[in-house]
Amino acid sequence: MMVDPKYGGGGMDTVSYVLAMEEISKIDNSVSVCMSVNNSLVCWGLETYGTEEQKQEFLVPLAKGEMVGAFCLSEPEAGSDATMQRTSAVDKGDHYVLNGTKNWITNGKQAGVYLVIAHTNPEAGHKGINAFIVPADAEGVTTGAKEMKLGIRSSDTCSVMFQDVKVPKNMRIGEDGFGFKFAMKTLAGGRIGIAAQALGIASGAMELALAYSKERQAFGKPIFKHQAVSFKLADMATEIEAARLLCLKSAADKDNGLDYTLSGSMAKVFASEVAMKTTVEAVQVHGGYGYVKEYHVERLMRDAKITQIYEGTSEIQRVVISRTILK
Ligand code: CAA
Fold it and tell me: pLDDT digits over 35-68, tens only?
């Protein structure tokens, strides 16, 4: 959506992206996570930090919708503590040799290209980390079984293994040692997308609860006329509006060239907690019907949980927020 039309993209701003993410996430979060990773991690990362050659080869087909990409940061033992990369890329002169396993990779099987974070010099800490562009069909790349998840079940999540994969030097992103900052800067924008996903889950659940509360009768009137239900809806509406404003603020910060790390983390932690709370209450409004798969609302409750985990857990967002406000 946001890629410059000269590379085949939609040329839209982040506010438009948030609005689209909210609408799609009311219905299908497997689609919206694919969209979020592809737009705000893969395409944004390549467009902002890639060379012209890298953009022509990979950004153009991504922006045109000819393929999707995946962002490979997490590992079996490196989730929140992202500097603890075990995946290694050994410098062999004109190329690197990549070895390691990445976990929980969204679009893992469908991706045509991976952005892979790996260490090139473990002694140098985060300064010894680099980011690489690896085509999915490169020799030595394999994927694990599709994960069986609580929610977003039709999203393709799996581990991706790299065994002696040759990565040409011109497929490194940025200067030597830029990989950790690349990941952090890219994730700062990615968090706006996931915040908007959480917002969509919450607003979708509220729309369902509102409609059901008008249909369902109990004690001689529609249940929304009972304060026990109408107060739940009032709280949902208020919290969703606050989450929406935080999402739009962080998107506007990004569009206006302001720092959006703080506002993006605030939007993500708040919207994901609103999504969890709202979906639990929306199931409650539906009573027994909320607990069966015939109704969409239970799916939204299962989908909500991941928004508190991926692209930085709620605890990590609080780390980012507290470090920034205490500076
Ligand atoms: N922008 C630019 N630079 C940044 C930055 C940012 N937002 N955040 C940190 N940095 C820089 C720091 O300035 C520092 O550089 P200098 O030493 O040159 O000053 C360097 O990065 C290291 O920073 P920290 O010391 O703060 O690093 P840390 O080890 O304490 O970790 C962290 C910081 C915020 C906890 C980070 O590890 C983190 O964000 N962890 C969560 C990882 C995550 O979000 N994973 C999600 C996986 S992707 C995903 O989920 C996609 C999907 O499928 C949906």
Answer: 999 999 999 999 999 999 999 999 999 999 999 9
pLDDT at 109: 96
User: Rounded to the nearest whole angstrom, what is the distance from the C-alpha of residue 186 to the centroid of ligand 1?
Assistant: 10
255 part of a folded domain? yes
pLDDT of residue 327: 84
Measured by CA distance, the residue closest to atom 25 of ligand 1 is 126
Residue 235 inside a domain? The answer is: yes
Does the Cβ of 74 fall within 6 Å of ligand 1? yes
Q: Which residues of the chain have pLDDT under 50?
A: none
pLDDT, position 6? 97
Counts of helices then strands in the chain (DSSP H, E): 10, 10
Distance from the alpha carbon of residue 305 to the mean position of ligand 1, in angstroms: 22
174 domain residue, yes or no: no
User: Domain tally for the chain?
Assistant: 1
316 lines ligand 1 (CB under 6 A): yes
Q: In 3D, which of 275, 305, 300 has the Cα closest to residue 212?
A: 300
The identity of residue 285, as a single letter, is: V
Residue 243 in contact with residue 2, Cβ under 8 Å? no
What local confidence, expressed as pLDDT, does residue 77 receive?
A: 86
Does residue 284 fall inside a structural domain?
yes
| C-beta of 182 in contact with ligand 1 (< 6 A) | no
Ligand 1: centre distance to CA 278 (Å): 29
Find the CATH number of the domain harbouring 235: 1.20.140.10
Among this protein's residues, is 175 annotated catalytic? no
Look at phi and psi of residue 287 and say left if phi exceeds 0, alpha if psi is from -120 to 50, else beta: left
- In the numeric block, which tokens belong to residue 106? 């969204």
Residue positions counted in the chain: 327
In short, whether 296's Cβ falls inside 6 Å of ligand 1 is no
Return the pLDDT at 261. Answer: 97
| Residue range of the domain that includes 268 | 181-325
Measured from the Cα of 104, ligand 1's closest atom is 53
- Output the pLDDT for position 25: 98
pTM, two decimal places: 0.97
